[in-house]
Amino acid sequence: MPASSRRRAARLRAAYTRESLPLAACGVRSGRGCAAFDSGLGLDVCTVSQRRLRALLALGLFNHGPGSLWPRRVSLADVTRYTLVVSPRYDDLVITARAPYNVTCWLVGHDDFSEMGLPGLRVECSYEDGWRLRHTPTGATMTVTGDRHGRLQGPPDPGSNYSRLLTTDAPITDEEQITLNALPQLTADSETLLAALAVRLCTHAPDGSWDIGMWFYDLTDRPDRGAAHHRRLSVEGDQCTLHWDSDPHPEDLRAALTDPVIGLCGTTARPTSDGWLLRYGRVRLMAHPVAWRL
Q1: Whole-model pTM over 0.90
Q2: Region Disordered: start and end of each range (predicted)?
């Protein structure tokens, strides 16, 4: 991609993702061209291991509360309470946050096993303002940093893991393996769709017409949908069902996945009596923005 085109693509991407221009440019450069499911901005084209990691992250983020299908000690949804930006790259998932330590502590399990985090996610290396993480079952990496451009400052310091988070030296625990084994079988299409949900946590329309708001806030001056923030994402074959009882507004989720600029290419949507039916490839996502019966 020529430099001028890359700059235009970075500006366009940043307008929707809240990334800084240098951060967005790294994602565009990593796009490796426009795949059939990619808009050319690099949000959805990635390695197979990255796609798997992002899909697992989505299952953790969108299961929270009494209806959660994940173990109670997996509280990934609390990550969405923090001010952060998600920046997907071809072979990495970068999260810039005002409180990178707090975000990392929700994502990675503790060595006293008080919290599980995302099963198999480990600290590979510590830096002055962030961490390089690796998901040992897939080999995919994540970066969490306080630098708004996505950089990890200072020399690597493996001894600075003061939060006692599990490192790559720690093998998968029995509880983590049980959790991973209990997860639904995901096809390539379902992984792509779930990954698309995860990387659009912070997306919004530049004109303010829709805003995902981290699945925690409404930023469009519309009536609040509630404060419980319960979510349940289930997958059975090519059928996915997502329930939630707070923000975002259902139209915003549909817009984020079907927007002509930032959407997941090939995704269609039609309204149902109580939400939206989204289709991508062979996968159907029933999005129900209502509380479910317990």
Answers
A1: yes
A2: 138-162
